[in-house]
Amino acid sequence: MRIRLSSWARCLGLMVGLTWVLPGTGLAASLEVNPVRLELETGARGVVVTVRNQGTETTRFQASVHTWVQDEDGRMTLEPTQELFFFPSMLTLEPGESRPIRVGISSAPRDTERPFRLVIEEMPPLGPVPPAMGLKILTRVSIPVFVAPKLKAVQGRVEDVDLRQSRFHFRVRNPGTVNFFIRQTRVRGLDARGQSLVEKDQVGWYVLPGGSQVFALDTSAEHCQRIRSLEVEVETDRGVFRQSAPVSASEPCGPAQSP
Q1: CA distance 167 to 186
Q2: Residue 10 has pLDDT above 80, yes or no
């Protein structure tokens, strides 16, 4: 699978940022990476990601690897690490040229999958940017790298389903040994007869082993007052997780929210 920086990167696990800007009108490197997710299986010697310069100028890039942890809202914390080895760390690509970056690990597999990020960053030009070129935006791509555990166990749970102040609350937990990616969450509010009153959905993100992601989706005060149970469905890249729970609006229903 190939993806360019103009695509909606978050839903595919590819994080793109703007790191450096020169004043003017707008130019950016056109970088293509393939694949956009790396998995180091037990016993594998390494994996390869191909970087291609789709732009019209010679461009320099640098690569680095980072440990990856995140909180329940999906905010990532990256720290430089030497646990993974990779080569090369610097690339100079002519227009249309592509080069591989090889990534591997020398340590033995552990009980739980280890997540990392391979970051590829465009470097500033060596010389001054001609005024005619206008704005220069440097690109930064962050690719997930997963090191397989001794034994893969896919598990997912929907917990803490509740209705508070006109909001549906629930948590998606990962007690397994490998990650999963939440493609879509859907929550239905049912009345006392089991009839659906309202349905809300929201996209998700990676849930790493031992981690969780929390959701809070608004509903109206009118619906809140009538809802007696909730049905939650979580679609992931490794299956669908469901949970149902009775609710009694444990906190008073707040003012009406936008539907």
Answers
A1: 13
A2: no
